């Protein structure tokens, strides 16, 4: 058990039989009435973000999330196969569990998998990945004052806004948290 007064960003807790990670919190001490903690929590099972208010000093369950290194092998239809790097056990995840991550996932890529009491919650991508541009329009110099961009399609099918000097075949560093171009790799 953990007190809500000890909330930290990134802490995983169990509330109402669901597993949440703390995204944001604020201790509030009104002039009249009892103090409370206002928090923003992300459900690790379905990805929903909720706002919850707790009384100061209230205790809730702490969730121990296990992270393991795994390698993405291949997909067959809507099933994506991963292999544990230590035990070499293979397991499948459904496409619905990997919606955002599929924009960056390449075969033989190493990622981390999060699980709670044997239940797989999802995968954690590295903060950035190298992806090759497969389709983009040629950059045309024009009447641009600054920072002109164009759309580029990378090998995973993600469309990213990139500077005009990027060409087909270039390898780009892409931020996996926001899906944005960082630089050339």
From TrEMBL:
Gene Ontology CC entries for this record: cytosol
Pfam families to which the protein is assigned, alphabetical: EFP, EFP_N, Elong-fact-P_C
SMART domains per UniProt: EFP, Elong-fact-P_C
UniProt keyword annotations, A-Z: Cytoplasm, Elongation factor, Protein biosynthesis
Annotated protein name in UniProt: Elongation factor P
The protein's role, per its UniProt record: Involved in peptide bond synthesis. Stimulates efficient translation and peptide-bond synthesis on native or reconstituted 70S ribosomes in vitro. Probably functions indirectly by altering the affinity of the ribosome for aminoacyl-tRNA, thus increasing their reactivity as acceptors for peptidyl transferase.
Domain of life where this protein originates: Bacteria
Similarity annotation: Belongs to the elongation factor P family.
Cross-referenced PANTHER family: ELONGATION FACTOR P, ELONGATION FACTOR P (EF-P) FAMILY PROTEIN
């Amino acid at each position: 058990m953990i007190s809500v007064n000890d909330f930290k960003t990134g802490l995983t807790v169990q509330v109402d039989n669901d597993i949440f990670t703390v995204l944001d919190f604020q201790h509030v001490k009104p002039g009249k009435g009892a103090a409370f903690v206002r928090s923003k929590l992300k459900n690790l099972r379905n990805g929903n973000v909720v706002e919850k208010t707790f009384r100061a000093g209230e205790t809730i369950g702490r969730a121990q999330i296990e992270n393991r290194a795994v390698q993405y092998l291949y997909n067959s239809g809507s099933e994506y196969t991963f292999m544990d790097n230590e035990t070499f056990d293979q397991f499948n995840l459904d496409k619905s569990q990997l919606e955002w991550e599929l924009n960056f996932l390449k075969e033989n890529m190493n990622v981390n998998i999060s699980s709670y009491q044997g239940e797989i919650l999802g995968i954690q991508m590295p903060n950035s990945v190298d992806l090759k541009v497969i389709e983009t329009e040629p950059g045309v110099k024009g009447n641009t004052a600054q920072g002109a961009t164009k759309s580029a399609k990378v090998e995973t099918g993600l469309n990213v806004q990139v500077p005009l000097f990027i060409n087909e075949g270039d390898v780009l560093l892409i931020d996996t948290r926001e899906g944005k171009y960082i630089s050339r790799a």
